[in-house]
Specification:
alpha+beta, elongated
Amino acid sequence: MRNPFLACAAVVLTAAALAACGSSADGNGPSATTATEPATPPTEEPAASGASAPAATAEGPKTPVDEITPATGTFTKKQKEYLKDRVPKGMDPAAVLQTGQETCDKLRYLVKADRDTAVGAIVTGEIPDAKDAVAGLCTQHQDLVDEAAYGYPDGKHSGKKLRPGVYRSASPTTDCSWQIEGAGGKELASGASDTGKTRKITIPDSAVTFTSTGCYAWLPEGAAG
């Protein structure tokens, strides 16, 4: 289930994203070496737009990293690392870079609105490029990616994927329910909440299956920054 915060931040301000992609030789245009986050954060939610940049994982032959250059100026080392094996032959690398910068902008917006929602968006895959974008373009959000690696999205989880511990729900709906089962399908714990408020659960060592519906994502307790 898509989170309402994500709906607001579905597409970041196009002008800000493009400004981080290009560069002009005389210094009057946008610079490719500009910081990955806009110098002046938007004062309201990122505007929605029907257009989006090409997927960073587009299939087909890729441009060799030593041939990746913007129309003018240069890319930073970090930007080139992000673009490696991501730019299809014949595609403007600045357009691919824009997708990573949009990811960073989405995370920046979500962190300001609600940190747990930002981590939850990575856990659920609603921000699918987060790991690579953060590593290459906005390392200040690495803590979000690290925490997300230990979270659970809605769905059924079992076997070695289960990690014992205390978890809290991130942005649950008013129809959130969960069930934890042990060997032989024995119910160890279950619950439901119609308040939309965060709940806590404990996944014991004996858990074999954990199922969640309408809770969006579960994050490891004690990992919040």
